[in-house]
Amino acid sequence: MKVYSFLRGGIRYSDSAVPPRGSSVTAFLPGLSVIPLAQHIGNRANPVVSVGDRVREGMLIGRGQGLGSANIHATVPGRVVRTVSWKMAEGLTNDAMVIKLEGGFEKLGRYQEVFPWQSLSSFELQRIIAEYGIVEMEGSGRPVSDMLYSLRSVKDPVTLVLRCVFDDPWLSADYVLCKERAAEVAEGCLIAARAGRMNRVVIALSEGEKELGAMLMDNMGKAEIPVDMFLAGSRYPQRNGRELELALRRYGKKHGGELGVILPMGPATLAAVHDAVKLKKPILERYVAVGGSAIKKPQIMKVRIGTRIGEIFAECGGFVDKPRRIGAGSPLMGRTVVDLDEPVVKTSFAVFAVLQGQTGEKGRAGCIGCGECRLVCPIGLDPEALYKYAQSAKSRDSTPGRAAECHGCGCCEVVCPSHMPLRTSIIRSALKGN
Ligand code: SF4
Ligand code: SF4
Asked: What is the pTM of this model?
């Protein structure tokens, strides 16, 4: 099978401190769960319980407020003991309900009734997906129901892309999920395709993952719409929306198939769609890659949403030494975590602690003009020039237009021998220009 990729730039990204892609282990249930009311891109959910209230596992505790917002559920049974609020590294404030674990579980370890979905309309499926607060389980956490709803006026054909492209080793938790929950991911894909009235499914796989693709195809059985497999290159950032679409369009052209509008979704999101529709279950846990050079025993864990990051690190043996940076997501594009009491949320596919900042450390030697950053930028930007502009007095009043094109992949920072904080400065400069 031919492998399709984007045309310019990119890097081969490896990291020895990533947990091995073996099987997952289940993390301890937290005694205190911190459930943020904003785990999505839009407004925080409106709390529907108060301090002192008892909550059941999976019970609604916050109602989404409009576009970009999603419902929030209790992930353990117990009592709301307090509310907390904290400032995140980006300067935004988040607030959360703190639930003390008490009483029995209704879903964990219980027989799960299965609800058929084949006779449900796309509208009914969208309503269930919204009710259970399903969001994209990475990035900014866009509500899936919003994504599906936005397709209602699209006239062109729509292709759902099951995005199993693992160009970043920190996606190992989603890789393990894909293997351990292949049946649920595959069925979630067909449910989402029906909910969005999509015309076709393409399973986008990293090269070398044909076996995983065959497993997913087998689990889809006789689908009512065409399902194809597509092999993507393994250069980072192949998984990124822009680079993935470039490769998919080349694939579509070659195979004479009109892909129309492309909607990529990750395996964790589609497994969550399955759980919402077939099991009437909100997102209670997430597969998380826990690692980094400061962690004694990196591993892939199934973690209840609301578990504090410090507890997860403790379960992995703690730190070998004082970490230089702690964060959530991939060190390349992830966000810095300032407080170990911050919890795992729906979008936390990885949490890391590193001894030396892998990216974005203050440049020690200053730019040496090697040009490496220009070679790897997939968009063809000049990161060095944009960085210098961002640092200059001029940039306080205006921003160079091309900074807005940066999608923050971080390739330039990784290759910079002087460890210049290129990505961070360019993104800040672009935001200022908005
Ligand atoms: S972070 Fe921005 S400037 Fe740097 S390589 Fe990626 S797209 Fe280019
Ligand atoms: S990679 Fe770093 S040192 Fe080399 S030109 Fe770019 S900013 Fe300068």
From this structure: 0.93
